[in-house]
């Protein structure tokens, strides 16, 4: 139990797409932010290389806007940041040219929670498109370039007049319920094992 409490004190940073769900009509432009949240520990983001997958029959990638939280010098396309557009896939990277101390001060000033890029999509067809982190080559580095492993969370875009206002995803069991069930199972196992 003590190990469980100790691990809860060390929070994992997170990169997520915001908003998690939105609706649009064909012809609309849909904007989504890629957000870094390293505020709990704090954790710093000095480099990232991701692939974003989406349904090309529903969305078409339009543009990617980079921000200065990772690199205060800004984006130098092809050098410190870049994006490759493909059908159903965006390949995006950015790394910092800041010193570790400058990067940390910049991100501390933002509360270690900030938008690293904004994605713009054109809605081209009716349907539901996940917008998710894809592939096995997702790479993230801290202020020193050491690899870090943030939790990732994608989003969904529904295009069409019949889209619900809220996304009705697959319900997930609560963490507390799973933990309680596991502890009950351990207690039952010990009780049965005793002669």
Automatic annotation (TrEMBL):
Residue stretches making up the Ice-binding protein C-terminal domain: 170-191
Q: Which Gene3D superfamilies does the UniProt record give? A: 2.60.40.680
MF annotations from Gene Ontology? carbohydrate binding
Protein known as: PEP-CTERM sorting domain-containing protein
Q: What is this organism's lineage?
A: Bacteria, Pseudomonadati, Pseudomonadota, Gammaproteobacteria, Cellvibrionales
């Amino acid at each position: 139990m003590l190990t469980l409490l100790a691990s809860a004190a060390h929070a994992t940073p997170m990169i997520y797409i915001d908003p998690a769900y939105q609706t649009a009509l064909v012809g609309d432009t849909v904007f989504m932010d890629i957000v870094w949240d390293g505020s709990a520990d704090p954790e710093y983001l000095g480099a990232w290389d991701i692939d974003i997958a989406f349904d090309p029959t529903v969305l078409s990638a339009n543009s990617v806007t980079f921000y200065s939280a990772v690199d205060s010098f800004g984006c130098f396309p092809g050098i410190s940041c870049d994006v490759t557009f493909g059908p159903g896939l965006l390949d995006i990277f950015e790394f910092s040219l800041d010193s570790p101390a400058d990067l940390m001060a910049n991100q501390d000033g933002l509360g270690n929670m900030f938008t690293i890029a904004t994605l713009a999509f054109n809605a081209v067809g009716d349907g539901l498109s996940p917008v998710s982190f894809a592939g096995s080559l997702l790479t993230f580095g801290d202020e020193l370039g050491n690899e870090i492993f943030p939790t990732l969370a994608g989003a969904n875009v529904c295009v069409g007049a019949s889209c619900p206002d809220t996304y009705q995803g697959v319900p997930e069991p609560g963490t507390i319920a799973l933990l309680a069930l596991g502890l009950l199972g351990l207690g039952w196992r010990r009780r049965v094992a005793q002669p």
